[in-house]
Every structure is written in C-alpha cells, then in structure tokens.
Write a structure and sequence with these properties.
The structure is a homodimer. By secondary structure, chain A is an alpha/beta fold. Chain A contains 11 helices and 10 strands. In chain A, the strands form 2 sheets. In chain A, strands 2-1-3-4-5 form a 5-stranded parallel sheet. In chain A, strands 6-7-8-9-10 form a 5-stranded mixed sheet. The radius of gyration of chain A is 19 Å and the shape is globular.
C-alpha cells in the first residue's frame, strides 16, 4: 500500500493546499509515512505563496484505490472529496466546516473547530506537541491560509484563535501581515485570463441535502463590475454546469474584498430557495448581498436550513 | 435557553456517564454554562463509582427542545442519541467511535481519537489546558471509565494512550488500579436481579446502514453459563424487541471478562449476515466467539462491512 495521502477539497483553495503541506509536516514529525497531494489546479493566490517559498505544488491525483489510507484536511463531505473516497480508509480529518455526508466504519482521528481556517487548528496542534518547532516555511504556509480564509481578518468567520495564530506566525516568519496579506489577496483577484468556465470552477463546492443538490462557487475581486463585464458568458457557463451535474441550484458569489460585499449570480430550477432565504427577488438572475463574504457562514447554512 | 446539555449515549455505560461529568468540569473551567445529564438508567458498575465518590447521578432527560445547545460525549450517531437531536444545536462532540449518520448545518468542535475510552481523550484535553488541574474526583471518574471500557486493559480497543492515562490518573487518585479495577468490573457483572427485558437493555446500541437496522447489546459476566440459565426468556425478550423496533438483526453479546470471550445470541430475519461475517453456523440461535470482547472493534464494523 502507498503512503497515507493527505489532501484538501476539490477545487483547492489556499487553505486546502497549505493545510495538506502542514499536515504532512506534522505527520512526518510524528513518524507517519504520509504525503500531501491535491485534487485540482492551484489558484493564483496559492501560486503566489508557492513562488514566495520557492516550492512545488503537491502532486495532482484524481481518485484513490480501494483501501487507500487517507487524511482529509479542510473538508469532510464526500461530495467535495476525492473520487472513490467511500472505499478509502480515512485515518484522520482536520477541518473547520460542518460535518455532513461523512461516515466511516471504524474509529478515527477527527479534529474540527469552528475557526476561520484549518491552518489555525493545525497551528494549535503543532503547539500541543512540545517536541515540535514551527519552522519558517510552515509558519508562512499557515499565516497565508489564515489571511486567505479570513480575508485579512475581515470575514465573519474569523475568530480570536485565527487572529492570535496569525500574529504569532507572522513573528516566526518575520513578515508584516498587512503588506504581505494585501499582496497575497491581490494575487488571488487577478481573474483576467480565466475563461468563464474556468472562473466558475476556481473555488466551487457542492452541497447535498436529501435529493437537493446545489453548488456555491466564489471568486474574490477588487472590483465586481470588472467581473460582470462577462456576465452573459458566465451565466451560460453556469447553465451548462447545471445541466451537466444535475444541480437544483447554482450560485456564483463575486466577493468584493475591499468593501466586504458580494454580488451573487443565481441560476437553476430552484432559485426560489435562494430568494426565500434572503427574502429578495432576483433581477436579471442576480442579487447584491450587502456584507456577505463567507460561503460557509453566511450562505451555505442558510440555504441548507431552507431546503426540506 | 437552558444551559448547554452534555450527555452520552442511550443506555449509558460507565464511559458515557463519567465522560459527561468530566466534560461538564472542563466546560465549566473554560467558562461555559453547561451541565451533565443522562439518557437512561445508571448501571450497577457506574453506581459503584457514584457510591465510591458519594455523588449523585446526572439528571435523566428523554428529549431536547428545538435549538437546544448540546455537547455529545461517547457517541455521535443520532440513532444512539437523545430524541429530537436532529433539531438541537450540537456545539461539540468528544468521542471514540466511528462517525455515521451524524450531521450539522454549522461548524462545531469535534474531537475523536481511536482510543479505548472517551475519558482518555478528555484526559488529554485536560492536560492541554495548562491552567487546569485534575482533581481527585475527576481522576477517579476518568480512571473508572478507562478500566470499564478496556476491561482492565484486556480489550483489543485498549491503546497505549489509555494505559498511560490510567496510570497517571491512578497516581492522582492514589488508587491501586488492579484492586479497584476488579471490584469495579465485578460490580458490573451482578446480573442477578435483572429481568430478561432489562438485561438486553443494560448496554444496547442500534446501528443503521442504508435500510438495514440492527442492534448489538452487551453484558459482562464472570460466568456465561449463569446468564444462559435464562436463555429461553432472554430469546423471547429479544424477539419482542425485534418486532417492536423493526430490527433486521439483534445480537446479545454475553462477555466473559475473565477469559475474554463472548457468547452471542443472534435473532432476526437476517441472521445470515452474522453467519457470513464470522463464517459460522448458528446453533440454537447462538455462537461462541473466541477472543471477542469488543462490540466496537470486533463486531459492529465487521457486520457493517457485510451489509450492502
């Protein structure tokens, strides 16, 4: 059997990639044979970090063999995980999301905390091992993920644990959080050379409740109108993905990281769920969500509670 | 809203009761308003501990209100939890079982480790807070649960973490593990005044996979034949519970804690699943399982893997 494989969710964001690399380091320090892999392309924000550190991305995989030992980071829902996850042996999970559609036949390690970032949980785990020292590389990986997931502490998902971890990690990394953080977030908002199809797949997550299947994709930008220039092509790409994946509902959140608002493009046969949830009427398939930046806290659970 | 309620599984065993009391202490030390409750009668083994400490059992509850905040210990499967758990707000879980039929709409604290006992996980949590000191009362609660769940370290579920925790807790409690442990286990094997109906409900857990529903009950004894004197009445009680609960399969494990074997009484329409799993033929609805003492490690996952 191969080494234990460590990976974040499909369409990996910065937290998924950084968490897998940090979890590999912790596992290795503890004598586990484990290696980080990824389930999709590296986004520009994450590439900025890899370039900064001069390291390669973890290798790409698309499925796992029956019985393969795995460690999941930054996700637990099977619909967001590797193909054939149902038949893998899940040894451990470190995550900061709700738990759903997840099950094992045997006991396992599972650490979830309702923090803004998986790397904050890994940071606390690192500190709990008195014999481990956090090196500069891992400090930068964790700090970057926290900045990314909390939008430089502005997201409502940010907790005091995330803030404290980031401050301590910035000291180890000898980095100015604001300067580095703005550079990092800016790198992630360069959407200029994405096709509409690529754009809606940069950071997309599927959710299932009973027979209702929906998708929430999200992109960060410094200017919503820039993204909306391609509105018609983006809507066409979303419509095609709805047919191809039998979705009841598909939402693209275009999040303004300067003003902390989102423009939502909402399509599918069941957009009424969205309209009821936010008590608004879609106009031209769109709605402006004032103060909404967090899929995890301000969108997904509200929709899930409105689906029977 | 009431305080946060902390409880173990239905038909609480020693670990469920001790974990809820210890988790109440940790929560209170951390400034949470939380109180331990229980979902069923106290068994004789647990009563021995409560008497030893001179403390009362946590209050009994049977259901929770919509939106009630809860902390689950020693279980996660909704079928083993309080009535209306689906509509409670689960704030945290500390557990050492597989995860299944569990879900939330929001992120939460979840700590699972594949240890022999939930109290070993709580012990490690206690130690992780540098500002908390383990008092004698909590040391005895945790030590007792570890002795109970690992059958004095003889169960295959016992890990080095359980052993280490028990040794350190015995020092704090100033207790000889073997003397106290045998007294404790012996208290739990006094089945003399249980009716057959009560016997099969002392420590019973339901499992569901797809549409297949089965139950595994377990009693500890120093002499299997003593229990089998009432075999026919026990079988009748099991048959009635199968009809009343629409079970495909119901198993009573009568576990010999001296020799570490179990006699299984197996009834239901789908006993073939059991026979296939252990590659044996039931005789008079019974099978002797040499070396089997752990429902969690040696029975439940094997059956679950054999159900389509």
């Amino acid at each position: 059997m191969d080494d234990i494989l460590i990976f974040g969710h499909k369409n990996p964001d910065t937290d998924s990639i950084c968490s897998s690399l940090v979890a590999e380091k912790i596992a290795s320090n503890n004598g586990w044979k484990a290696k980080a892999v990824r389930l999709g392309n590296i986004n520009k924000e994450t590439q900025f970090i890899l370039n900064y550190l001069g390291i390669d991305a973890p290798p790409l995989i698309s499925k796992v063999e029956d019985g393969q030992s795995v460690i999941l980071v930054d996700h637990n829902e099977f619909s967001q995980s590797v193909d054939n996850i149902e038949n893998a042996k899940i040894e451990a999970v470190t995550d900061h999301h709700r738990i759903a559609n997840f099950q094992t036949s045997e006991p396992l390690y599972y650490t979830a905390k309702p923090y803004g970032c998986t790397c904050t949980i890994l940071y606390e785990e690192f500190k709990s091992y008195s014999y481990m020292k956090i090196e500069k590389k891992e400090a930068i990986l964790m700090l970057s993920a926290i900045i990314s997931d909390t939008l430089l502490f502005k997201s409502p998902t940010c907790t005091k644990h995330d803030k404290t971890a980031a401050e301590e990690l910035a000291k180890i990394a000898n980095i100015d959080i604001n300067t580095y953080g703005l550079d990092l977030l800016k790198a992630g908002t360069d959407l200029s050379d994405f096709s509409p199809y690529e754009l809606i797949n940069i950071d997309s997550k599927d959710f299932v409740k009973n027979t209702f299947k929906f998708r929430i994709a999200q992109v960060n930008t410094a200017c919503i109108n820039d993204v909306l220039k391609n509105k018609d092509d983006i809507k066409l790409a979303i419509s095609r993905s709805i047919s191809a994946n039998n979705l009841n509902l598909s939402i693209l959140l275009i999040t303004d990281i300067i003003n902390s608002d989102s423009q939502a493009i909402v399509l599918g046969n069941d957009t009424s769920v969205f309209e009821q949830t936010y008590n608004i009427k879609l106009i031209d398939d769109m709605a402006f969500l004032k103060g909404v930046v967090s899929r995890k806290k301000q969108v997904a659970p509200l929709l899930l509670n409105n689906i029977d």
